[in-house]
Fold this protein.
Amino acid sequence: MSTNNPNDIQNQHDFAIILDDVVKKFPAVDETEPALSHISARIKKGCITGLVGPDGAGKTTLIRIIAGLLTLTEGSVRTGGLDPDKDLDRLRAILGYMPQKFGLYEDLTVMENLVLYADLRNVAQDERRKVFEQLLDFTDLKKFTARPAGKLSGGMKQKLGLACALLGNPQILLLDEPSVGVDPIARRELWKMVDALLKKGITVIWSTSYLDEAELCDEVLLMHAGKILYSGKPSELTARVKDRSIQIRNIEGNHRIVLQHALRMKEVMDGVIQGKYVRLLLREKNHLPDLESLQAGSKATLIVVPPRFEDAFIDILGGGPGGDSELAKVMKSVAKSELTSVIEAKALTKQFGTFIATDHISFAVKRGTVFGLLGPNGAGKSTTFKMMCGLLTPTSGFAHVLGIDLQKSPSQAHQQVGYMAQKFSLYSDLTVKQNLEFFAGIYGLHGKNKIQKITEMIEAFDFKPYLHANASELSLGFKQRLSLACAIMHEPPILFLDEPTSGVDPITRREFWTHINGLVRKGVTVMVTTHFMDEAEYCDYVGLVYRGKLIATGTPDQLKELVTNKKLPEPTMEDAFIELIMQHDKNNTQNPTETDAAMTILPLKTPSIFNRFVSQSDSVRRWLALCRKEFYQIVRDPSNILIAFILPMVMLFIYGFGINLDSKDLRMGIVLQDTSSEARRFEDAFFASPYLQMTSMPTLAEATKQLVAGNIRGFVAIQSDFSKRLPLSHGISPVQIITDGAETNTANFVTSYAVGAQQKWQEIRGIETGKPLQAPINIETRYWFNPAAISRNYIVPGSIAIIMTVIGALLTSLVVAREWERGTMEALLSTSITRLEFLFSKLMPYYLLGIFSMAVCWLVAITLLGTPFCGSLIFLFIETSLFLGCALGLGLCLSTATRNQFNAAQASLNLAFLPAVMLSGFIFEINSMPLAVQAVTYLMPPRYFVASLQTLFLAGNVAELLFKNGLFLLVFAILLLGLTAKLTRRRLD
Amino acid sequence: MFQRILALIRKELQAQLRDKDSRRLLIVPVILQLVLFPFAATLEVKNATLAIYNQDSGKNSIELMERFSKAKAFPNLKILHSVNEVSDTINNQRALLVVSFPSDFSRKIVAHKTASLQIIIDGRRSNAAQIAAGYIQNIVQNYENELPSTNTIKSVAVIRNWFNPNLEYQWFILPCLIALITTIGCLIVTAMSVAREREQGTFEQLLVSPLNTASIMFGKTIPALMIATVQATIILLAAIWIYRIPFQGSIVLLYFSLLCYGVSLSGIGLLISSICGTQQQAFLGVFGFLMPAIMLSGYVAPIENIPEPLRSITWFNPIRHFIVITKGIYLKGFDFALVWHDLWPLLIIASITLSLAYFIFKRQTG
């Protein structure tokens, strides 16, 4: 390693970043292999340093350590001369960091993202106009300032991410895989931008698995399995393999077979297909392979070509994978087809509203060839691909596979197709074996055939050691193998691959294409979309899609020839791609470039008084910026609106009107078997009851039937000897009152109303018989606070407590977790915000939302629902604020602890919502619960809030009760918020 | 096709049972609700505090006080000494209700005059207090009957509570729980699993397989039914063996109804998932459906108390129908004719939601 030179120590000021013996272990992962082991490096100021290596090499971990987002296990780091452990705040002020997912808020517009990061990175208000104008010019995003970041193409997102990272004039810029999933044109523009930055003296670190990019860097750090294999200039590494790269030209016959033969030779270390040529890397200079045994034909020639960084990379890793595909050996040959073309698109057009995504695209693919669909992001490539797979219905035109129309008989067509989606879409929570079994199953394999096929796949792809591992635990390379295995188990004659090797290192990619080549030779036809130009070289035939049209088709070499001129004597595939698109733009001068209606660059015109106040403190400004962002996010997500505004109203009305515990008009039957007037008067007393709705029933059997069916909640049976037995004061009662015990609560009411009716009858009878009834004890019942005993009056205040819980806890349980999942947390952490600023920025908008919602609920309750309100609004405000403190604290605490929206939502449902309904005393009486459950209710903030609300609405300002409950709420709020603050970290680990 | 759907079903079950989070999701609510609901969700009154303000020094009021304290509803008596104390007790919710004896209470009884007794109820908790007041009235009435007074007439009626002789609230809760818990399980499995497949990108994999939309929906419904059946069985066993509530009806009929109910719920779950892109939206969608649906199911408050037009809307709430069925079969021994009354609405709901979900899925893929 070049770092142990004693001269370096004197020139420490030349280095932007110094890493000494850095070790990083993650506690969860296997102890034996640290993520980074003993990394030492010096990174020069004002240079671009490429961080290169295969997937899982530790690139992201290293970048995060440099940014101070992760702590070290051993060793030391100095970034810009600062120790991340001690000077985190100063470090963040000089750092620009763009995480893998760009760290953008997708629901905020371009301008809003810029303003947010400008505030977070303390860009002065008066500089902004200039800075924004420069950056928007620089990134060419001026036309899109009002567009939400989520609606930008991949390339534009990446530029915006870079612009956000550049705010606040960082001295060191860290870019983590900025070019994954981005088309060559956008990549080239990004490089131009970075070049401009380097001229200003900024140090740039660029991590990538694309090796052609590494070649453009001043210095590279080549990483593999947590170690640095090489550090220095890329050209020096490339020089090691000088004269070892050769091309076989003028091949007659199948170049795929030539490659396979070549890779079997011991002289050859590695090989790839480049259009009609085959490019090889030799183990030693001048030890050329024997042309004849390559079977490349008599005219074939070997030409030494300049080496590429990729060759050196393969060399340093000890060579590529072999050329034989185990998979191809077990696959049967595809039967010859009479059709000249097995995949066919004719005038395929798809229109989304007024936007034409693809415009009359036609192509045909011959059996046993590879067809590549290329094009910039958003050109219509994916739309075309989806229509070919039958995932989208074309507006006009048709897509055929083996002569089967994908629209008319999709199932039949799909049986002929193997499909490998972008991002390795497998069931990550199933094991390798379960995935294989599942895909075999849905493609109709069963019995012996299925077992045999699965065994073959396990052998061909070496799955044996991983059979019972979850698919999510596999390395990227194995995930890709598994996707391929799942796609081809049913031996489809046609294979669709959607960006199959995006973000994958060269060795895995070679292995993948070895399999594909093997399959193609068996007669499988392959259609592939890709951003990766090396991959395009593997295709027999390429179609270039741009602005919804197929602007060029041909073999890779034909496309290259199209753009060959004096300036570009030997264009690469990437040159051809860019040149063809530029030519197309030139020929269509009227250029319908998309622009957004709103062209304002600086929409922010905050009042000047506000500005003066705000500019006093960076901290306040950062906090306000975060609050504003949070507010936009609340307002723009429809599911938030549903939960925060619509559901509360629905709940309030349902609780107010739907839940009525006062049973009035209870349906009861009455069976009168005695026709005497005495019995009739008894019956009349029941009919006179205001609470009962009586129906006469002819027989007991009928009444029983109705009761069982639930049509009545009870019945009165007056027996035929009623009048005879009445004078007797002893013996069997002549009347039976039967209730429906299955409706337990109602049965209680039925009983008491029936007894009441009977008493009434006794009173009347007493007067009539001259013996007026004189009860020894007269019970007088008085309802305080709710004289009419209307259940709505106490249910409505209680339900407001539940609504506050939903807004406070359920909604906020998602917000921090969402930042983690979307990768924006990383971007926020790399700015200079503090823990409290972050926490209060989450609290404030949801607190205001809660208060607003309380105001609406209060208004609806006292107007539409007619609930009295006896207390004072100030107390209502105080108690609500304290309770919101508890609910928000609980929600944020769960969200921070889980970092996963799904789990956080579940937890808040079980820990916040359920207790609020069940254990708050809102409907169910706490006193009636067993002691253990009662004890638990003391730990539930809703309990105190429900009592306070019911008191405020119905009883008024009962100072002692309100004060006591407020105190409990305050204690819980402090505890929960304190716990959240403790859980909130300024670093990732 | 059968083999393919079988593969889909097996995968679905594996995915639900392998992942720790989703396994927890299927078990935790069952246990939590099984333990919590029968005890916490009760409208009975037990262990309440009764405050007594006795200005009378005679034996009658003391006799009554003793009788109150023997009732299981009021193990705690709180003796108050002044009117101020009465209002303080009610205001600060130190007792559920206050019984106040005037100073001439015993004297009047001895003199065969009508003595009065006042019950003061906290209107903020009027349901519980109302029930408690009912207990007080009962005790007082029984006492009256024992008084050597001449004019009282013995009650002519005898009261019987069918299906639940002692009006135990748990008898009401547990059959309802069978409906509630299967609801949550079924909706989560159908609605969330499609959203998760969308997020992971595996939904497209399914769409490009030879499975058609109907069989994908079928493959999502069957595992949901299986999980619902297991959950329902757990509750049923607990109700019979742990809570000792006698099962009156036909097990076969119960499981058959459960099947129909599960299908109607899967329809709703699939409908939610067909319009949701992310798990978050699906979760909030399920929550947004469950909240009102449970409230208006007849579980918290009887359906007949719900005013029109809200009551008619509840016809489309499958939980409402299934609660009638579970309670009917469990407590009342419903036969098929009675079950059918609430079964056909379930089938209608299922056919509406399933076909809607089918068309939405169809339109998305096309």
User: Anything to note?
Assistant: Residues 2-41+168-365 of chain B form one domain. Chain B touches chain A through 129 residues (CB under 8 Å). The two ends of chain B are 22 Å apart (CA to CA).
